[in-house]
User: Fold these one by one.
Assistant:
Number 1:
Amino acid sequence: MTRRKQKLRVLVLMHESLVPPDDLSSLSDKERLDRQTECDVVRGLAGLGHEVLKVGVSDELAPLRRQVEESKPDIVFNLLEEFHGQGLYDTNVVSYLELLRVPYTGCNPRGLVVARDKGLSKKILHYHRIPTPAFAVAAIGRKFRRPARLRFPLIVKSLVEEASLGIAKASVVTSDEKLAERIRFVHEHLKTAAMVETFVEGRELYVGLLGSSRVATFPVWELLITKAPPDEPRIATRKVKWDPEYQARWGVVTQQAEGLSADLAGRIARISRRIYHALGLSGYARLDFRLGEDGHPYCLEANPNPDISKEGEFASAAKSGGLSYGPLLERIMTLGFERALRTGALLGTSVT
């Protein structure tokens, strides 16, 4: 069996604007918040005794290739979420790592492609009879006619963007006029096709998964907006996700879901593993669900390579499941090595 060295040379890949300085005290509160995941991972890996190198890319791959050739890392810890300003292009960077034959963490290119396209992933889930809200895609440059199966209220979002980009209270619509307005907003401001989806009233749940052929699921997590008016839809808008002042004002918290029966929690875990395999995911992922008023969990979307900041949803759920932050980072790297072994991508690395 191939065994990793106790101390690894880890190259942490991120967007060039998010590379944290060696002295974090030089960062403002906002700068630190913007780089929270990058700071946490770099510090976490260093705290485990690994040699940590950092490389940032934006629209040019030369810095990545140069670092790989010069430092010969044992593994690339992938935190990149976009390239050339496009969220979809992170897939191409991962494919480039495969061409360089260097082990990397997180999801494989095929899984990224499938999961990033919400329309494609939902078609696959529907084929596997996994509950997901009814939907339709409003393409740019084509007139959209609402199918009869899509009944109000509906929610409109980008077909491919992540991190709740473009999602606001106005995303939930109750008329054809408002629907047309929101589709136009997505087309014009986000420059992507729009996903039009049945809005499921209920609880917003998250499930973290870790693994490849054998997949572990973490305890179900829940998004709560405790101070929102009772008649207002509780959705993960951009502000709910990323604005600390807004979170404090509206009582936004994420925590382990309470009151789920053992049977329901087990069913959600089983469905989550089916989704993970059906979409060809690997490494780690977070699945978003709505627990409908009918008691059924509906999968909204899959998020490969989700945020893994130390206090974020994924790491908190892992900790609740018995996996603290350091071992979580180690496990993520181990999965990267295991995939590299299967694909023969360990050639040229110093792993022994």
Note: The longest strand covers residues 202-211.
Number 2:
Amino acid sequence: MQVFLQTLIGGISFGAVYALVAMGFSIVYRTMGLVNFAHGSVVMIGAYAASTFYMASRLPFPVAIVVAIVVTGLIGLIIERVLRPLEGRDFDLMLIGTIGFGTVLEALAILIWGATGHAVPSPVTAAPLDVLGIKIRTYSLLVIAVATVATVLLALFLQRTKKGAAMQAVAMDPQAATAVGIHVGRSNAMAFAIGAGLAALAGGLVGPMLYVSPVMGGSLGIKGFAAAIFGGFGSIPGAIVGGMAFGILDSVAAGAFQGYSELIVFLVFAVAVMIRPTGIFGERTVNRA
């Protein structure tokens, strides 16, 4: 029982990271109707940026993550600006463009940091907490807390601010939003920047939990994408639930099936999608294709 509970806590911490990645996918999709296939690579760039500023520049870990968020936010703005002329004209070319950006970001990461990758020391040196015989890593609790705060702030931004309301209006009907004076291009740019910022936060947090390398974005991107689909693509609550479910399933499968864990996880995911193709919360966005 203790082993199961420890596995559960580890799964929740990874689930929090997957939820952040899934929310990044969802916020772009719900605003533009576009799947940003470069998102996993942006997560990887965020992990590298945060670890570099933390280890090489000796910045405090929270400051390093904030700087990484700014860097990837700018990358998100650049991607949106390059794709903007294609908005409403060639949707397929926009998808191909995001794939191209992902390839470019991976090549840049290898050029700047090399292909070998590196480990990131935990910024929390406190000993694991002992709760009724269950050893809980202090850093895991930090990851869960930071992801929770980021989720609450995102929800408040979307529901309580004019810019958040404008983004939701664009998601529902871009033509009507334009008619009432909302700048659709700016809303799309903001969606890309926020999505990239969430990617950097996820990458920065997962750095001390995994090995930072140019290929890590592929695994995190696929799992975050799957979590978004499982929860209901375009739904922020769905991204949270999907991320948590995927993290817990991943952790339990790793303990029970070891080398076959990812096979088991994606088999369960495939069955779940066949049972409910629209995900737990269903489709929440307008299809722009």
Note: The chain is about 75% helix and 5% strand.
Number 3:
Amino acid sequence: MRILLAEDDLITRRLLEAQLKNWGHDLVVCSDGQQAWEELKRETSPKLVVLDWMMPGMDGLTLSREIRKLETKPYTYIILLTAKSRKEDVIEGLEAGADDYITKPFDPQELRVRIRAATRIVQLQEELLAALRASEFQATHDSLTGLWNRYAILGILQKELSRSDREHLSIAVIMADVDHFKKINDTYGHLAGDEVLRQTAGRIVSSLRPYDSVGRYGGEEFLMVMPSCSTTNALNIAERLRSTFEKNPISNAEGTFPVTLSFGLVVVNGKDCQNTDIIIGRADESLYKAKNSGRNRVEFGGEIPSHCSDCA
């Protein structure tokens, strides 16, 4: 466990440092409160801290209060070191944000037990946050491709539409579909089909800008949301993607086989239509036009005009 130790008294600091290292902990050692505060403001700061109550620059109570204002995750567990043992002092320390306290001169066994308890709590909190992050990822991402799922990508589209409305920026929406996907499944098997979808997702992501978003809309369909993107740029991106798939077959354990995509594209400009159903519908119509026109092509569904009558 990484522990931040802040103690201005050299002898006490050396004793604490020796004990904690002997128990297998990694230490960030500070000689005053201000130095400790600078360390604790870092994103990678230790989440278990041992603070002396009386320190120059910033005392343990003040430092505890400032730590609680940071609202960091996972939670920072604070142990106060103090020569004060009156009930009133203990209460004051705990009210300042400390989780535990140890009186000086400290007993090594008591210190070890309290550090062990603090370590368990910090580790449990980290495990809980990891589980929460995993749950959030599963709720918003497609399990096969790792892309945003349908619900999430539609939410991103709505958010970007609101932003484009405020900032008078264009936003491009592309619907893409793997051509003859059923034939791929029937010919090469469903595992090969899954691999096609995974590799397709990876190629799309690598071809888009860092601030663009892509989600698996359903089956073999992918929805791309590209903020601040002109019609010319959007068409270039879609055509580059189409060409990439046409020129680079997909390979898996079963062999190499060609895969192409069809694309339907629309652009919304400035204070335009905010109805995602209409925008998706227009992109979908363009996609089906590409399919009906021979596949492996990009169809532009036009720019949705300002104050779209369908949204009135």
Note: The longest strand covers residues 171-178.
